[in-house]
Design goal:
- It contains five helices and six strands; from the N terminus they run H-E-E-H-E-H-H-E-E-E-H.
- The protein has 217 residues and is of the alpha/beta class.
- The longest helix has 22 residues.
- The N and C termini lie far apart (93 Å).
Length: 217
């Protein structure tokens, strides 16, 4: 039969607990106030690999794939990127998505519209390359337009500042060698700080992206 403490022993334990509580109240003072929320951190720095020398090659630029809160439609963001790339490197032939769409309309069924590409991580087994079905689709585009390099503008997003006063537009993009499927450039860039999203903020981000992607000639 299990040992049961006597009623006297239980009473002594309750008395001791009451004494300890009284001492804690006398010596401890008021409880420490709960810590407030940590200040909000700003966006992490934009990352990219080194800028390239394209040497006057042809590059097919696909449509911006996703835009969130930047104050401009995806088509407008794509146009700003094309303009900034042309300003940065006029020797390279930057082929816009509309030229590709025109060729696709004359070749119905050959390849899907580039507005929504198959998802791909652009990185597999710690190496940067693309897999099917995106790899095959890019090869079809490159065959139609007689190019080797295809630039995929991936995301455009508005990043508020840590203090809530304004923010920046961040653009990200990946360039693929369609013959090998390898990623030859990837990166992101932030535009100048702006009070609110809009075309001006997008334009500064496009210029920053072009600067990170292409070496000045």
């Amino acid at each position: 039969m299990p040992f049961a403490p006597s009623r006297a022993r239980s009473s002594r334990r309750r008395s001791a607990a009451l004494v300890l509580l009284a001492l804690a109240s006398a010596c401890g003072g008021q409880a420490r106030p709960a810590a407030g929320p940590a200040p909000a951190a700003g966006p992490r720095p934009a990352t990219s690999v080194a800028a390239m020398q394209l040497g006057g090659q042809k590059v097919l630029v696909l449509p911006m794939q996703a835009a969130s809160g930047v104050g401009a439609p995806r088509e407008a963001v794509t146009r700003e990127i094309l303009f900034a790339l042309g300003e940065r490197d006029a020797a390279t032939q930057w082929i816009d998505p509309e030229r590709l769409r025109g060729v696709l309309r004359r070749s119905p069924g050959y390849a899907a519209d580039p507005d929504v590409l198959p998802s791909d991580a652009f990185r597999h087994h710690q190496e940067r390359y693309v897999l099917e079905p995106l790899a095959g689709l890019l090869r079809r585009y490159s065959a139609l337009m007689d190019v080797r390099l295809v630039l995929i503008p991936q995301t455009a997003q508005w990043l508020p500042a840590a203090d809530g006063a304004g923010g920046v537009v961040r653009l990200s993009a990946t360039m693929v060698d369609t013959r090998s499927g390898n990623v030859v450039w990837w990166g992101e860039a932030d535009g100048a700080p702006a009070a609110q999203p809009g075309p001006g903020a997008v334009a500064t981000a496009a210029a920053a992206l072009a600067g990170r992607m292409v070496s000045a000639r």
